[in-house]
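Sanity check

After download, print the first record. It should look like this:
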Amino acid sequence: ESMASPVEKEITAIDSIRSLLIMKAAEASEVLVVAPNSRVADQIRSEIDSIAQDKTLEFLAWETLPHERLSPKGDTVTKRIKALHQIKERKAKIVITSIRGLLQPISKSVLESKPISLKSGVEIPMEKLLANLVYFGFTRTDLVERRGDFAVRGGIVDLFPTDLEHPIRLDYFGDEIDEISYFTVSDQRTTESIEDVTIFPTRELLIDESVKKKAEYLAAEFPEVSELATKISEGIYAEGMESLIGILKNDLLSLIEILPKDFQVITIDEARTMSRATRSEEHTSELQS
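Expected structure tokens:
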């Protein structure tokens, strides 16, 4: 097992001690571990967590390829964005990702979008909350049944954050959130009350005015993406819209650019990992051509 950092040390070790070596490296400064695939990344995280809890942070890759007309799952996106905030705030000693997770471009505007903090007893006008939920990619429905849904009934807002097991209900009194509770999808009844919750975007391509204008141009000039681009230009979060992120956003960053400067980078099985990176780039080029 070969591990190398940008300052160029290489260690050859059997798989059973690689996690111990990573933990040792993390004593000096935070570490980004890049694995050849998600299976190896999960294995390393499990090994480290079995020795020391709360040391690792997983940065997931999309389940889809960048130019497929499929959107990544909402819970994957939310976990990625939460992880990015934790990295910025230096809340993790060891960040683990796959090479696909490392190569996936990240929109700077998503990272800079302030999460929605909801707390009982705090004022946040319902109109403002609803507008923020729409911007974060939530879908308004009559009844909340799936992650990413929200619904409004009088002074009650129901929503299902993609990173929670159960949806939440906000009871409003004027502009103040009077109570926050979990509820069950099956019978829509509230269960336990909670004090606060933080809501993150469900999409990595957020539709602002700049994105709408670019999408309008694409719809007019490129017939092959006209239907998808038209929906985006109208502010509609459509399936597969992320395939256009490289055209609609000019603020894309890599995970390496987001990391604090003194992070160490450890590559697991460097030859295999770099081979996968090359194949991924070749496949992306084929899709673009």
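If your output differs, re-run the checksum step. Summary of this record's structure: DSSP finds eleven helices and 16 strands in the chain.
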